[in-house]
């Protein structure tokens, strides 16, 4: 594995402590590449790194409120089991997991009252792989209840704050995972993305977020929201860190019948600083009226920089983009209404006993689910009901095919598509909470990617005049992760935005 120059810079700021070992006062700031570099030279121990990260959590999480559960004892136990002889790809790396992924014996709430005390008896494939790769679990992060939302304000417990400005939303639904990475309360995190829930919070929090191709990463043990759209992916401080995590979590799984059994490349191998020969498409439909001017300026400047690195920029069309949000909210809510039928007070979590079985179902669901979840169950049940199915669900699936075809056509001409991740920077907490339609529009640029099942990454590409991060989205063809990681890495290194951190 390549040790980036950054690690050397960090080493320069190390100090010799009185035991003769180097220590770094702000170890929690390290990236995966930097931490692994220091650990392999015996200049850092996983235990010292964990101590620094947990001190950071103690100092900051009372104000950021990103963790639902902190797992200090589990991390210590995992660090104790690591053997210096058997170096693994995430050896001793402190990582946080969105609280909709099951970890055996660790409370998994989906930020919902209905699962508040649910302790899964089994492990998700992704966390199992991270465990084998040597990660140390810092905790489970907050989300919009069942991953339905764009701000974490729909969490059944509390709202997470954006580390760049505590009065603003961190995005959602993986707002907790994006906030813990931005605030250095872990070295890397895992999120899930059904319509933008990795990329939009990564954009709002100034970090890297990757939604892989549908099927590249197993969904086994991910609590289902909309099964044909859900994907798990990394949220990290740099693109190279995202590639390292993807190396670990990608791959077919017999426990997820929708996972793809393909050869997984080493995603770090294709990273370079040269984009010669790469064709980047710019879809005119993604630069819309009503989009924040400062976002547009930052994204256009990033595209010029990518051109300067050798890529050829080509204007393209994705004509069915305007229908994506409507189609998504029919398909996602339909699947959600079916997936969430299992929470009945009998099999999982909360039970509110009623006068008979039906009454128990109703009482449990009435008390256990929040407003947005109920809204979506009703919408989805309506769209699937006989007489309406053809008009709504079937139509939405047809639109989905058209959207996928738009991308297929575009990728005959270009290798990567560049767009803004979100039309605005982080909005104020409360600003959109009472207007679900406004909230739904914050994913207008991310949703088509899930409908088409293709991969996309969000990386920081500048700041607005209020000092809030702007995100650039790079979209790839099916299983084209290596290409988008390459473009993202080259841009990240040339532009250097990743070096700017929130002063929290
Ligand atoms: N914000 C979108 C929604 O509310 C996407 C959520 C997600 O990707 N999990 O459905």
From TrEMBL:
<dbReference type="InterPro" id="IPR004412">
    <property type="entry name" value="GatA"/>
</dbReference>
<protein>
    <recommendedName>
        <fullName>Glutamyl-tRNA(Gln) amidotransferase subunit A</fullName>
        <ecNumber>6.3.5.7</ecNumber>
    </recommendedName>
</protein>
<comment type="subunit">
    <text>Heterotrimer of A, B and C subunits.</text>
</comment>
<dbReference type="InterPro" id="IPR023631">
    <property type="entry name" value="Amidase_dom"/>
</dbReference>
<dbReference type="GO" id="GO:0016874">
    <property type="term" value="F:ligase activity"/>
</dbReference>
<dbReference type="InterPro" id="IPR020556">
    <property type="entry name" value="Amidase_CS"/>
</dbReference>
<feature type="active site" description="Acyl-ester intermediate">
    <location>
        <position position="197"/>
    </location>
</feature>
<comment type="function">
    <text>Allows the formation of correctly charged Gln-tRNA(Gln) through the transamidation of misacylated Glu-tRNA(Gln) in organisms which lack glutaminyl-tRNA synthetase. The reaction takes place in the presence of glutamine and ATP through an activated gamma-phospho-Glu-tRNA(Gln).</text>
</comment>
<comment type="similarity">
    <text>Belongs to the amidase family. GatA subfamily.</text>
</comment>
<feature type="domain" description="Amidase">
    <location>
        <begin position="48"/>
        <end position="485"/>
    </location>
</feature>
<keyword id="KW-0648">Protein biosynthesis</keyword>
<keyword id="KW-0436">Ligase</keyword>
<dbReference type="InterPro" id="IPR000120">
    <property type="entry name" value="Amidase"/>
</dbReference>
<feature type="active site" description="Charge relay system">
    <location>
        <position position="173"/>
    </location>
</feature>
<dbReference type="InterPro" id="IPR036928">
    <property type="entry name" value="AS_sf"/>
</dbReference>
<feature type="active site" description="Charge relay system">
    <location>
        <position position="98"/>
    </location>
</feature>
<dbReference type="Pfam" id="PF01425">
    <property type="entry name" value="Amidase"/>
</dbReference>
<keyword id="KW-0067">ATP-binding</keyword>
<keyword id="KW-0547">Nucleotide-binding</keyword>
